[in-house]
């Protein structure tokens, strides 16, 4: 970075200490030490004075906010992989560059996806709760007690075969699942061969034939409720669905209905339509052992968050050195 004057960088949430220290060294950084989510008026004030906004997925960076930005705001360097919280078109109209933090969350998110894929059919959290909640006394092992469903030999249908979807496929293959996927375009023959993956041009047809559906596509207007009531109804009553992408990709009300009516056997959800609110009907289904719920923590590792911070720093520095930042997001 060659600029004499350090760019004024407004960071909306608390970041790992090591990241904040680096930000302080390099930039005129305004941090959020106590991690209180910023209100819209606070964000408006920030975009009127900062050169760079570093939001996270909990901030709403919509057209109304972007339109109020001062001319000094040049970069929105999001501390996130997904950018569905940012109106990219509105930013482009104002000549504001947007960047994200891809690649560094792939393995962590895929690990947690597998954890849910294992947890739901094998009743992992239900079993753990029996010993910790002590609602019922454990009478000891019995041949017919706590029976789940076998994972190996089943078919997984991955919706969205990007980086995370592919990382899920690698892990799923190691667990003996056969890999099926639906994507906007086919992955390379080499990847398909390595994963022994079957491509389904028709999402509907894939949903009807697999045992576990894993949602791994980005959230965009085109993928909103991609797993609609009609599509969920195509799934087999013995099948499971796992979502570690974004809540809005699955029609949550329709999913709840399918789970309650036994049209889908179970679900593992790390993301929800109205985060941080979680539909109480899902919580009830969790208490009945039909779903496993996690509080949007699939990518939550210290290493991952530090890597994200490094990416934000590189994007800001490259931008102020007059170059195209490596993780620029185009409209
Ligand atoms: C992201 O950055 O998009 C992830 O969902 C965070 O967990």
Structural overview:
With 331 residues, this protein is of the alpha/beta class. The chain has two domains: 8-104 and 302-320, Rossmann fold, CATH 3.40.50.720; 106-293, NAD(P)-binding Rossmann-like Domain (Rossmann fold, 3-Layer(aba) Sandwich). It is built from 13 helices and twelve strands. It has helices spanning 17-26, 40-49, 63-67, 88-93, 106-119, 124-133, 163-174, 189-195, 203-209, 229-232, 252-260, 280-287, 302-320; strands at residues 8-11, 28-30, 52-54, 75-77, 97-99, 155-159, 178-182, 198-199, 212-215, 240-243, 266-269, 291-293. The chain has a seven-stranded parallel sheet, with helices on both faces. A five-stranded parallel sheet has the order 2-1-3-4-5, sandwiched between helices. The longest helix has 19 residues, at 302-320. The radius of gyration is 22 Å and the shape is globular. The model has no long low-confidence stretch (mean pLDDT 97). Residues 57, 80-82, 105, 299 line the site of (2R)-2,3-dihydroxypropanoic acid (DGY).
How are the strands ordered across the major sheet? Answer: 8-7-6-9-10-11-12
Could you tell me which ligands this complex binds, including any ions or cofactors?
(2R)-2,3-dihydroxypropanoic acid
Per DSSP, the total helix count is 13
Distance between the termini: 26 Å
Name of the top-level CATH class of the largest domain = Alpha Beta
Note poorly predicted spans: none
What is the CA-atom radius of gyration, in angstroms? Answer: 22 Å
Domain count: 2
Provide the residue-averaged pLDDT: 97
CATH homology superfamily of the largest domain: NAD(P)-binding Rossmann-like Domain
Give the class from helix and strand content and strand pairing: alpha/beta
For the record, the CATH architecture of the largest domain stands as 3-Layer(aba) Sandwich
The quaternary state of the protein chains shown equals single chain
Q: Major β-sheet, in short?
A: 7 strands, parallel
Order of helices and strands: EHEHEHEHEHHEHEHEHEHEHEHEH
Question: According to CATH, what is the topology of the largest domain?
Answer: Rossmann fold
